[in-house]
Each structure stands twice: as structure tokens, then as C-alpha cells.
Amino acid sequence: MSKLIRVDFEVFGTVQGVFFRKNTQKRGEELGLKGWCMNTKNGTVVGRLEGEKSKIEEMKHWLSKVGSKNSVIDKAEFRNEQEINVPSFTGFSIKH
Q1: Phi-psi region for residue 78, left (φ > 0), alpha (ψ -120 to 50) or beta?
Q2: Strand partners for 78
Q3: Residue 29: pLDDT over 80
Q4: Which of 21, 23, 27, 48 is catalytic?
Q5: pTM score, two decimals?
Q6: What's the confidence (pLDDT) of residue 85?
Q7: How many whole angstroms separate alpha carbon 94 and alpha carbon 55?
Q8: Residue 2: which pLDDT band, with cuts at 50, 70 and 90?
Q9: Average confidence (pLDDT) over 52-58
Q10: Which residues pair with 49 in a beta bridge?
Q11: Is 39 tagged catalytic?
């Protein structure tokens, strides 16, 4: 079985009001990832991802280069990456 990791993310750019969170949730679920995402007061989207390292790498690419249809991504930052034994979430949610 491949390693499970957890990583926090923040995406900067035009990522609010463009269904970015909904699409992040959808993409995360497609990749079998667990975690959450939410808007911040300063116009970014933050969240946490948990899952297989290869799937997290795919999600990192999506968050930094693809995004939702009308989003404009300036940059994505990833922090606190660490190996975990079991996910702490049961699915991928959008926090409000």
C-alpha cells in the first residue's frame, strides 16, 4: 500500500465566486482524497488534503494549474506535509 500523507493548501487568485470550492471537492473525491476546503476573508481558498502521495501530487497540480472553469490561479502554496497512518476525515467537505 502506498504512503498516506496530509498537506495544507492555500490558493491565491480569482478563486472565489467561480465554483472553486465545489470543483475542489469534486476533484478531491475523484482522486479518492479526504479533507476540506473553505473561502478566507482575504480572497483565497484554504484546505487540507489527505490521501495517497501520488493522488495528492495530482491534486497539487490541479490546485496550482487547473482549478475551476473561470478561476484565475496566481499561485498555490502547500505547507505542513507529513506522513499519516490513517485519514482523520471520512470524506471531502466544504466548510463555511
Answers
A1: beta
A2: 9
A3: yes
A4: 21
A5: 0.95
A6: 94
A7: 19
A8: confident
A9: 97
A10: 7, 35
A11: yes
Q: Which of 23, 27, 39, 79 is catalytic?
A: 39
Q: Do 15 and 93 meet the contact criterion of CB atoms below 8 Å apart?
A: no
- In this prediction, residue 1 carries a pLDDT of 56
Catalytic, 27? Answer: no
Q: What are phi and psi of 52, to 5 degrees?
A: -65, 140
Residues in the chain: 96
Nearest to residue 53, comparing CAs of 29, 76, 82?
Answer: 82
Which residue's entry shows cell 490558493? Answer: 11
Cell of 20: 472553486
Q: DSSP string spanning 4-73?
A: EEEEEEEEEEE-SSSSHHHHHHHHHHHTT-EEEEEE-TTS-EEEEEEEEHHHHHHHHHIIIII-STT-EE
